[in-house]
Amino acid sequence: MKKNTIFSERLLKLIDYLAIKPNNFAKKLGYDRSQTVYDIINGKSMPSYDFFFRFINAGFSEIINVEWVIAGKGKMLKKENPISNSIVGDNSIIGDNNRQQRTGISNDRSIEDKNLTNIIKELKVQMESKDNIIDNLIKQQSILISKLTEKL
Description:
Blueprint: H1 5-18, H2 22-29, H3 35-41, H4 49-57, H5 66-71, H6 99-103, H7 110-151
Helix pairs in contact: 2-3
């Protein structure tokens, strides 16, 4: 008897968005075996507190609206472009399959690299400006110290 077909549909939609297989999803949740996830998908069991606890602690709640997962309320994604530095990389919760199509981020990260390059250039300019201010303050300090010493 299927217990949770509506939840199963949401879970399948979530796994599809992440572009990973249910087995990999289960591993990212920290399950030794994927049977728990398959039982939920197939409507054999309801998700437990442990399932949601693992879901949140695995980092999925950074991009996925937990209220949508639990009750179907709101949108699945917290933001339109949910990728953050904490979930991209070797331990990414999002699979490589169709990453560019689903998230707008290509594996070569050329757009991200260009943005970072621009940010670095801007920060260098700001640092040079601060360095100039510091140099001027040091010069002013030296002048004031010499004037003060002359008066003594």
